[in-house]
Amino acid sequence: MNIPRNLPGKMLALQLRDKTLLYNSYMSFLEHGGLFVPTDDTFSLGDEVLLSIEIINHPDKKFLPTKVAWINPARTSAHRPKGIGLAFGSDEISVQTKNLIEAELAGMLRNDRTTFTL
Questions:
Q1: Which domains, from first to last, does the chain contain?
Q2: Which Pfam family, an example, fits this chain (predicted)?
Q3: C-alpha distances in angstroms, 30 versus 48, 51, 98?
Q4: Which of 3, 19, 41, 63 is 20 to 30 A from 10 in CA distance terms?
């Protein structure tokens, strides 16, 4: 496990155990990618959050320093739960995670299906 230094004050965990959940959670429209995390906790745009994630077919937990870039303040429909979108940075672990996610979602990223954010 590679835990970054200078940890943010808040931490969230996300388990992405199937491709549908990974697709619905991934935010490819952000510069370095990102993930939507369902949560009832209160956050503000720009808050720093340490994200612990487990991704389908990759058993090792990853710890990414992220920033809040999207907020769904309340359940807006069956497809958009309350939670936050966390933007990845340009650090090595974030770039590796983005590449891993995009490889898992190969052929699905240009899909018009709705996700948890758009």
A1: 10-104 (2.40.10.220)
A2: PilZ
A3: 16, 16, 11
A4: 19
